[in-house]
Amino acid sequence: MNAPEPNEAAAGARAENALKAQLIGKIGRLMKERGLKQVEAAGLLGVKQPDVSKMLRGDFRQFSVERLLRFLVALGQDVEIVVKPPSGAEAPALRVARL
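Above: the chain's sequence. Below: its structure in C-alpha cell form.
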C-alpha cells in the first residue's frame, strides 16, 4: 500500500478536522440545551473539565472522531454510521447529518 501524497494527506486532515468541528458543535448544542455546565459534562463524558473547555474552544487534537461519537452517545444520542455512494454531482465526503 502506497503512502498518500502530501496534498491527499492534507485534504484528509482538513476533512477530519471539519468532521470533528461538526461533532463538537453538536456536543456544545446538546450541553446548552440541557443546561450542562462544563464540569457536569466532563463527568458524563469521562474527561476533566479543562478538556471540555479546550474541546469547545476548538482545541480538539486530542480527541479522535470515535471518541467524539462516544461523547454523543454519553449525552443520550443515537449514532448511526451510513456508507453510501454519493448522489448526483455530490462529491464523496465525510458528513454529519441532522445537526
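Residues 6-34 form the longest helix (29 residues).
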